[in-house]
Amino acid sequence: MNVQNIMTNLEVKHPGEKEFLQAVREVLESIEEVYNQHPEFEKAKIVERMVEPDRVFTFRVAWVDDNGEVQTNIGYRVQFNGAIGPYKGGLRFHKAVNLSMLKFLGFEQTFKNALTTLPMGGGKGGSDFDPVGKSDAEIMRFCQAFMWELWQNIGPDTDVPAGDVGVGGREIGYMYGMYKKLAREYNTGVLTGKGSTWGGSILRPEATGFGALYFTEHLLHKAGKDIKGLTVALSGFGNVAWGAATKATELGAKVVAISGPDGVCEIPDGITKEMIDYMLEMRASNRNKVEDMATKFPAATKFTAGKKAWSVKCDIALPCAFQNELNEADAKELIANGTWCCCEVSNMGCTPEAIHTFQSNGILFAPGKAVNAGGVATSGLEMTQNAAHLSWSAKEVDDKLHFIMESIHEACVKYGTQPDGKIDYVKGANIAGFMKVAQAMLEQGVC
Ligand code: 2IT
Question: Per the residue annotation, which of 88, 124, 289, 369 is the catalytic one?
Answer without folding.
Answer: 124
